[in-house]
Amino acid sequence: MLLQWFWVPLGALAVLALYQQVRIYQIHRESKKKEELFQIVTENAADMIALVDVKGRRLYNSPAYKRILGYSAAELGETSAFEQIHPDDRFRVLDAAREARETGTGKRLEYRIKHKDGSWRVLESVASTIRDAKGEVAKLVIVNRDITERKRAEEQLQHNLFHDPLTNLPNRRLFLDRLQSSFARARDAGRPYTLLLVNVDHFKVFNETMGTVAGDHVLLELSRRLATRLRQDETIARRESSGASPEAVLFRLGGDEFTILLDVVDDPSDALRVAKSIQAAVAEPFFVETREMRVSASIGIALSTVTHERPEDVLKDVDVAMRRAKALGGSRCEVLDEAMHTRAVGRLRLEADLRTALTERQFRVFYQPVVELASRRVVSFEALLRWEHPSQGLISPYRFIEAAEDTGILVSIGHWLLLQTCRQLRDWAAANFSAQPIHITVNVSARQLADARLVNDLQDALQQSGVDPALLQLEMTESVAAADPKLTVTVLSHLKHMGIGVILDDFGTGTTSLRGLRQFPVDALKIDRSLVREMQTDRATSDIVELIITLAHKMSLRVIAEGIETSRQLERLLELGCEFGQGYYFSQPLEAKAVQQFVRQQIGPARKSGAGAS
Ligand code: C2E
Ligand code: MG
Ligand code: MG
Predict the structure, then answer these.
(1) Given this structure, which CATH class describes domain 362-597?
(2) Which of 22, 341, 371, 463 sits in a 20 to 30 Å window from 434, CA-based?
(3) Cα gap 185→23, rounded to integer Å
């Protein structure tokens, strides 16, 4: 019994011991299996896997290290991991390792490490911890992925976003960003800057005649020259030596337009000096397939000393200055100073007001009679635009036509005017106050002439009013007609086909050649009022007027003299054989409601009732 009692625990102990032996064996096998597994995984992994102790000493490096960093396991053993890491990244890596040890979990980390050949590879790594029997972190397993190529692709994409593909210069996007910074620094810290806008003169023509390949070649060469010139510029270097550490950055805005942002340069004469040096660089000859070519550039300059509210205003200013340089003949530099700035601001306000004027119906049409000089019979009226400004009263087209033309709003005003005059023609025909039908002539600008909507607008106005097209005539100045002769011929042929007459306005001041005159299918010439004015005092002018009249008659064109103010002018024009005329001598431009009465009355010298405009 006792024996029995004794044997039971002894047997249990033996079983227990055996069980423990089996368990140890199993654990050993499992961990051996795990080790094997670790071995298999790490030996074949594309990523670099490292095992380090808590002191950062290398215990194991997977074979991928050799492939990615060029070092064999033995070589790695001799090098310090810390020293292979990029100096700027070292402490971040150490921090991350410490954190992993302390918290037991590692963060994703990016850092650079040196390849055996000296180049840098970018790694993305994650650390995990292995704890010992006491539960303390004993080792770190670090998995490193080589993301160098991905990084390079990302950087390339980023670069492309901010650089121009042809010249590799920073592009408009980057420029706007930099301008914003310079603007903020000037405003907040009083650090000045200067902006130069460089635009190649007649580049469109160059591209069209030489082809875009030659055009690209010139732009590329130009970008190199400008960059070199800026690097060597003495004015900029001088500023640098004064401790101001300026920066001159060249951008390509697109097309033939470059900008240069000069930090710290705030003196107009310094800015001009830089611009002149840029122009000299542009002026050097280019060789396109052994042909020598030359181009020039117009440069606008805006200084931060002029007060601007937003960076966009600086851009507008520099554009105004550049356009001015172009308007003055190109190959020039223009600085936008306070006076020019004020003018530009006034112009912007005018443009905005013009838009309001159209929607608020502030435009009026006045009609100036054109008479047959011999009989004084009214044959037509010239429709003249007025702006009835709410605070400034009637404004002359001389003060707003150009701005309306530049912004394109004149096309819309022109459409409204055509509708208005055609309705007027219909009403006058219905009122039947004149023995002969009355015509109306309407002025068109260059932009209106080039706008495809003109013919449609005309058809629209004629259709809506049901007016005979023969009662409508268009006037355009010689320079408008000559701006694009091909286009003018096409549009005029259309008008002729529609039965609408055309008058060449302000004739004798422009540069129409005789051939041009033959080429344009016009019906009449209107002699410019400066010739009519000077005719009396200047013999040569009188001869010119006579010549124009003879020429017109030879070509079967009618002649109208404008700006007749005195009876002597009238008499002289009659002597020279001029048939038609208009001017204050007969009448000022009239309001529509005054026209009927005017036609009915005998025409004598002008009454004082006419309405002009300031
Ligand atoms: P324009 O077509 O040569 O028109 C004649 C201008 O001479 C008118 O000025 C008229 O008022 C003025 N005038 C008439 N008789 C005399 C005179 O005896 N002496 C003097 N010194 N001037 C006289 P306005 O109305 O101020 O128009 C100026 C210019 O504005 C016009 O010159 C025309 O080029 C343009 N314009 C006027 N209305 C329109 C329009 O509806 N569309 C376009 N595109 N341009 C217009
Ligand atoms: Mg006119
Ligand atoms: Mg005129």
Answers:
(1) alpha beta
(2) 463
(3) 74
